[in-house]
Amino acid sequence: MPKIDIRHHLKDPSLFKEDAFIHGQWTKAATGERFAVNNPATNEHIADVANVDIAQAERAIGAANAALPEWCSKTGKERANMMRKWFELITEHASDLATLMTLEQGKPLVEAMGEVSYGASFIEWFAEEAKRVAGAIPSTTWSDKRLMVLKQPIGVCVAITPWNFPIAMITRKIAPAMAAGCTIVIKPAELTPLSALALAELSMRAGIPAGVINILTADEKQSIAIGKVLCASPTVRHLSFTGSTEVGRILMTQCAPTVKKLALELGGHAPFIVFEDADIDAAVAGAVASKFRNSGQTCVCANRFYVHQKIHDVFVEKFAKAIQSIKVGNGLDAGITQGPLIEPAALTKVERHVADAISKGATLVAGGKRSVLGGTFYEPTILANVDKDMLITHEETFGPVAPIIPFASDDEVIALANDSQYGLASYFYSRDIGRIWKAAEALDYGIVGVNTGIISNEVAPFGGIKQSGLGREGSIYGMDEYLEMKYVCIGL
C-alpha cells in the first residue's frame, strides 16, 4: 500500500519525525533500512521509520553516558525548569500529539487527548520532585563519628515501552529518571514510534541537553537484538519495562549478568467485584470505563467481573444497555468511543477467548463478533454464565470483552479474585465501610479501585505484585527507583 502524507492532519507538521533520536540528532539507520507504520483503523501506510542496528544502540548508550556528568551536576531546580518548559510545550501541542497517537495507535481522539494530559502530568509532577530529593543525617551511637545518607542518581537508564499508551508509558518512566539526574535511552514499541519521536522534538525545543534523551526505533526483529544490547551493557544501570510477563522474565534473565536495577510493569488480569450492597448504576458506569477504554487494551482494565448472585441479572441487563452507547470506528471521526484493536493477532486472541467461553457454556449477552467495519474492529462484548475453566478467566484478553461470573459470598469472591499469577489492578463496588476495608486489605493486588473504574494518577504509586512486576511508577515513591542511597561515615 502506498504511503500517505499525514502531516496535513497536524497544525505543526514538523512534529512528524521518522528518524531515531541520538545525542540530539535525528539519525537514520546505518543500513538505510526503514520499517512501515500503519494506521490500525484504516490499514493505511503512514510512516517509514528508521530501523537502527545494535551499533547505533551502543552509540545511544554512549551518548547518554557522555551527557550524564553535566545533567546530574545541575541542581534539581535547573532540571525542573527545563522539564517545566517541556511540559508546557507538550500541553501547547496537545492536539497534534493526540492526532499522531490516534493515527498510529487507533484510540479515539478524545482518549488520546486524555493520554497527552495524563502523560504530561508526570513531567510536571517530577519536575517539582526534582527539587525535593533529600537524604538524611541519622543519629549515631558513636561519639567520634557522624553519619550521612545521600541520594544520588543511579546513572544511565533504559526504558522499553508498549504501544497501548505510547506517550504516558514513556513520560511515566523518563520524568523521574530525568528529575533524579539520570540520562535515558528509550526503545518505543515498533507499532507506535511517532508519539515518542514527537516528544523528543519538543524536548529539544525545551532546551534539554543532547544525550539526556535518546530514542531508538526498530522493527520487531531488530528490537530483540537491540534489547539484548541494552540489557547486556554494563553502562546501563537501570531498566524499566512495561509489557507482558513473558517478556519481563526474558529481560530479567538478560539483565542478571550486570545486576541492573529493574522496574517491571507486567501483565494483569484485574478482577472487578460488585457486592450485593453496591450502587449498581455506579458499578455499571465504572465497568464500562474500566473495560472498554482503549478497546480493552490496557494492563489495568477489568478482565473478570464477579457479580453477587442477588443482583447479577439486574447488573447484566444494565451493563448490556450501557454498552449500546459505545460507538466503534476510526478514532479521528467525531463521536467515536472505541477504536480498532492494534493488529490482527490481537483480534485473533479475542475471538479465541470468546469462542472458548461459548463452547464451554457461556451465554453471549451482547456483541461477540467482528464489527461490520471490518479490519481489526471488534464489537463490545458481554458474556454471562462464565466459569473458572474458561480461558478468559485466566489469560489476559486485551480486548473489549467482559465475562461475568456470579458469586455467593465475600470469602468465595476474594478467593476467586486472588486465584491468579497476576497482581496489578483490582476493583470492587460496595457501600459497606467494613466490607470496603476488609476487601481492600484482602485483595492481592498492587492497586485497588473502590467504587471507581479509573485509578491512574501521577501522584499515586502505580505497579503490581506477584508476576505483575517490580517497583512503582509515579508518586513520591517513583523517584526512588532512579536513586541510589550512599552511606557516608565521617570520623571527627
From TrEMBL:
<keyword id="KW-0560">Oxidoreductase</keyword>
<dbReference type="InterPro" id="IPR016161">
    <property type="entry name" value="Ald_DH/histidinol_DH"/>
</dbReference>
<dbReference type="InterPro" id="IPR016163">
    <property type="entry name" value="Ald_DH_C"/>
</dbReference>
<protein>
    <submittedName>
        <fullName>Succinate-semialdehyde dehydrogenase/glutarate-semialdehyde dehydrogenase</fullName>
        <ecNumber>1.2.1.16</ecNumber>
        <ecNumber>1.2.1.20</ecNumber>
        <ecNumber>1.2.1.79</ecNumber>
    </submittedName>
</protein>
<dbReference type="InterPro" id="IPR010102">
    <property type="entry name" value="Succ_semiAld_DH"/>
</dbReference>
<dbReference type="GO" id="GO:0005829">
    <property type="term" value="C:cytosol"/>
</dbReference>
<dbReference type="Pfam" id="PF00171">
    <property type="entry name" value="Aldedh"/>
</dbReference>
<dbReference type="InterPro" id="IPR016160">
    <property type="entry name" value="Ald_DH_CS_CYS"/>
</dbReference>
<dbReference type="InterPro" id="IPR015590">
    <property type="entry name" value="Aldehyde_DH_dom"/>
</dbReference>
<dbReference type="GO" id="GO:0009450">
    <property type="term" value="P:gamma-aminobutyric acid catabolic process"/>
</dbReference>
<feature type="domain" description="Aldehyde dehydrogenase">
    <location>
        <begin position="26"/>
        <end position="488"/>
    </location>
</feature>
<dbReference type="InterPro" id="IPR016162">
    <property type="entry name" value="Ald_DH_N"/>
</dbReference>
<dbReference type="GO" id="GO:0036243">
    <property type="term" value="F:succinate-semialdehyde dehydrogenase (NADP+) activity"/>
</dbReference>
<dbReference type="GO" id="GO:0004777">
    <property type="term" value="F:succinate-semialdehyde dehydrogenase (NAD+) activity"/>
</dbReference>
<dbReference type="GO" id="GO:0102810">
    <property type="term" value="F:glutarate-semialdehyde dehydrogenase (NADP+) activity"/>
</dbReference>
<comment type="similarity">
    <text>Belongs to the aldehyde dehydrogenase family.</text>
</comment>
<dbReference type="InterPro" id="IPR050740">
    <property type="entry name" value="Aldehyde_DH_Superfamily"/>
</dbReference>
